[in-house]
Write a structure and sequence with these properties.
The chain is mostly helical. It is built from six helices and no strands. Helices cover 73% and strands 0% of the residues.
Length: 96
């Protein structure tokens, strides 16, 4: 399964953009783009919005990838992770 960093790097490469170009357009340091691509850090929502525009992809696509990864990493050591996510989904559905 592709992670956010791999997806970001693939999208950047398809556009023929260098890390420094994406960084400048997203108003972050090149090292931050490197951290995103290496999986050392996930972007904020605002950064995701900018990256989606720069890379000409759906903001939703990047948000889903990043947030699902964040949730997975937050729960990776939790034995009850599956049950927690299932209950969270039910709660989200009842809120709507």
């Amino acid at each position: 399964m592709q992670n956010f960093g791999t997806k970001l790097k693939t999208l950047r490469s398809k556009q023929g953009l260098l890390m420094r170009q994406v960084a400048a357009a997203a108003d972050v340091d090149t090292s931050m783009i490197s951290k995103f691509e290496n999986g050392d850090r996930l972007p904020t929502r605002e950064q995701i919005e900018k990256l989606a525009l720069i890379l000409k992809v759906s903001e939703d696509e990047l948000l889903i990838q990043a947030y699902s990864e964040k949730i997975a990493y937050d729960l990776i050591q939790e034995p009850l992770a599956k049950e927690i996510v299932e209950l969270a989904l039910k709660k989200l559905q009842s809120i709507k």
